[in-house]
Amino acid sequence: MVTVGRHINGVTLNPLEYLLNDTGEVLEFDTEDAARAYLKDKGFTDDDLDCLVFEQADGSPEDETHDPPHRVTIETIDSDFWLTHAPLAKSAFMDAYAAVNRIEDLMTEAGELFDKLPPAIQTAILGYHNDPATLQHCLRWGLQAAKEIREDWPAVVAGIPCGGEG
Questions:
Q1: What's the domain count of the chain?
Q2: 6 shares a domain with 78
Q3: H runs (alpha helix) in 71-157
Q4: Which of the listed residues 25, 58, 83 is the one where a domain comes to its end?
Q5: Which domain holds residue 102?
Q6: Residues 41-75, buried b or exposed e (16+ Cβ, 10 A)?
Q7: Fewer CB atoms inside 10 Å of the end CB: C or N, the chain?
Q8: What is the pLDDT of residues 72-90, one digit of tens each?
Q9: Whether residue 113 has pLDDT greater than 60
């Protein structure tokens, strides 16, 4: 049996999320060819398919030479078809929340360090790195994002199943 996965948000460092059937179980196909035919019937192109990971149901890749996906755009299959990951233990949620708090602290500290630079140097940095995502921009919006994530943590993780204690 073969399953179809893709890296969450198209980032290969992220774990795979899997195509699901109507009952929410991981969808399995007899062969990779059958999986590809199903997806093509749903509107996938060959380029889309090249960004997916086809695994044997036991978790080992069917084709060891298959390049890992970088990005996949799935417009014809609803996001409910994808399972992002196994349920997390309560401790994983708590550790992640602590990490977000630490990120916010570090972003605050980085912003304070940057603010201590003389204005002439701040301006020189802005001029040197004249890009929409300047250091100043990243610090400001990174801190804003960390704060928003921390403040709305329950909504951020609401779609992740909890596997109980651990």
A1: 2
A2: yes
A3: 90-115, 119-128, 135-151, 153-156
A4: 83
A5: 88-164
A6: eeebeeebbebbbbbeeeeeeeeeeeeebeebebe
A7: C
A8: 334 445 555 555 455 677 8
A9: yes
